[in-house]
Amino acid sequence: MPLDAECAGIVAAIESTGVQWSDGIDPDEATKGWGAGLLLGAGGEAETVASVQDLDALGVQVRVYRPDAAQPLPLILFLHGGGFTIGSIDSHDPVTRRLANRVPAIIVSVGYRKGPEHRFPAAQDDAWTALRWVGVNAAQLGADGSRLAVAGDSAGASLATYLAIRARDEGGPPLRLQVLWLPWVDCALETAASGQEHISFQEFADGFVLDADAMRWFRESYVDEADYSDWRVSPARSDDLSRLAPAFVATAECDPLRDQGEEYAGRLRAAGVPVGGGRYEGTYHPFYGMTAILAAARRLEDDTVAALQGALS
Q1: How many Å from the N-terminal Cα to the C-terminal Cα in the chain?
Q2: pLDDT tens string 25-59
């Protein structure tokens, strides 16, 4: 199936700008553009929540969203996407506000360090620090620390599942769910078994917003070649995926990362991990923020909220 009509119109508009990732992109400008796009997708106005508070979590910037609901609430640690190079708490502010209100839950969004200024494993270290911090401070945040999930999109999904693996290996904090939207889980950008590029990486290498050049630019901006197979930045390379928190894995049909995300979901299932979610037909990377103008984004949000409500009840 090709892009659906709604997604095709957005992709055509973005592609018409002529941006070439191979020429290099200013991370700050790209982050601003992404944030503007997600805000537009939210309808032009960020939803109101009961409170928003910027805090320091052992040296890591976090933003805490509290909805207008009876506390204590479940807690979700959110890791934004952006190839470990762009994106921010601000760019994903509309998404985190909606999740806070709809679940409802307290959301702690993490402003981890990014490339090219900060290279691997800076983001992973910050994500782990933030998870340990919320595990200790859940009650002070008005949250029930026993009902904790991690969530992220793209590179943020990589960080989320990295946290699930490390929490298992280092005694917690225990997680109820890992939400992985369009996950980037292998920096080698190829199948571990054959060493060949995934079919989706070839099929959607150009013309679908996130293309092969963009993926290579993100990778080069954050990870040295010697580290491509390190499980911390390529969780799909982990030898053991058993005993992890249940997962909700969403992939986009017209996404170069589709096959690695679906392969990872299959490995989780094979290791005995319950996995929900699936492929969202006719969509691209990243479609998830535009809930006001994309029916597919609304379906993904509905499915994600249902999975979180079920896991955190």
Answers
A1: 36
A2: 777 777 776 666 665 555 456 899 999 999 999 99
For the question of residue 255 being annotated catalytic, the response is yes
Fold of 5-312: Rossmann fold (3.40.50)
Q: Which residues contact 44 (CB under 8 A, 6 or more apart)?
A: none
Q: What is the DSSP annotation of 83-118?
A: TTTS--TTTTHHHHHHHHHHTT-EEEEEE---TTTS
285 has catalytic annotation: yes
* 34 torsion bin: left (phi>0), alpha (psi -120 to 50), beta (else): alpha
User: Residue 152 and residue 178: Cα distance in Å, rounded?
Assistant: 8
Contact indicator for 147, 245 with CB cutoff of 8 Å: no
Please pick, among 154, 200, 221, 238, the residue that the annotation labels catalytic. Answer: 154
- Per-domain residue ranges for the chain? 5-312
Selected catalytic residue, list 4, 126, 211, 255: 255
16 part of the active site: no
